[in-house]
């Protein structure tokens, strides 16, 4: 698929995809005979995972580190797993905070609901 198709599937701009290529998150992108980028199904799968990491709050620097380790192959599996475990712990803490915030909002909503219905 070309960059426009990948952009449509991932909801990332072509500029962002080129930037990710430049900083090493999308390495080794193939080019067709006319020099245009050509993305494979595995590129789509990889960028979809990157989007999940980004949307769950992983800093770009850590995503770059993960991508570089990924490029080095299976020898870095333990390091990549540790990065993901660390990110999972951060994500769990963020979810716990958000759950507490949600409970506080629910309590305030119930306060007003009871006040209005009294």
TrEMBL record:
CDD domains: HTH_YyaN (cd01109). Residues 1-69 form the HTH merR-type domain. It comes from the Bacteria. SMART domains: HTH_MERR (SM00422). Keywords: DNA-binding. Pfam families: MerR_1. InterPro entries: DNA-bd_dom_put_sf, MerR-type_HTH_dom, MerR_fam. PANTHER family: HTH-TYPE TRANSCRIPTIONAL REGULATOR ADHR, REDOX-CYCLING DRUG-SENSING TRANSCRIPTIONAL ACTIVATOR SOXR. This is MerR family transcriptional regulator.
